[in-house]
């Protein structure tokens, strides 16, 4: 049994896929957070433009 765990510890075949998966997850979280902030800012800007246009008429 200890030989199995020693062999498993030395094996790095699946580590690359897991690392790429974690990187992709972090990029997705960062993209969602960034786009959410941009979306809120854009919403505020467009509401201001809409208000200005309504008041001009």
Describe this structure in words.
The chain has 57 residues and is mainly α. It has one domain. It is 89% helix and 0% strand. 0% of the residues are buried. The chain crosses the membrane at residues 20-42. It holds the Pfam family Flp_Fap. It comes from Emcibacter nanhaiensis.
Secondary structure: elements and pairs:
Elements: H1 2-10, H2 15-56
Organism: Emcibacter nanhaiensis
Protein name: Flp family type IVb pilin
Keywords: Membrane, Transmembrane, Transmembrane helix
Helical stretch tally: 2
User: Can you summarize the main beta sheet?
Assistant: none
Shape: rod-shaped
The topology string of helices and strands comes to HH
Mean pLDDT: 86
Structurally, how many domains make up the residues? 1
Computed structural class = mainly alpha
Q: Into which percent range does the helicity of residues fall?
A: over 70%
Number of strands: 0
- Estimated radius of gyration: 25 Å
Distance between the termini: 81 Å
Q: Uncertain spans, ≥5 residues at pLDDT below 50? A: none
Strand content: under 5%
Give short descriptive properties of this protein.
single chain, 57 residues, mainly alpha, 0% strand, transmembrane helix, Flp_Fap
Quick structural summary:
With 57 residues, the chain is mostly helical. The protein has helices at residues 2-10, 15-56.
């Amino acid at each position: 049994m200890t030989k199995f765990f020693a062999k498993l510890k030395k094996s790095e075949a699946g580590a690359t896929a897991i690392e790429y998966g974690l990187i992709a997850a972090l990029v997705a979280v960062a993209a969602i957070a960034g786009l959410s902030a941009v979306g809120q800012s854009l919403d505020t800007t467009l509401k201001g433009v809409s208000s200005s246009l309504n008041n001009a008429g």
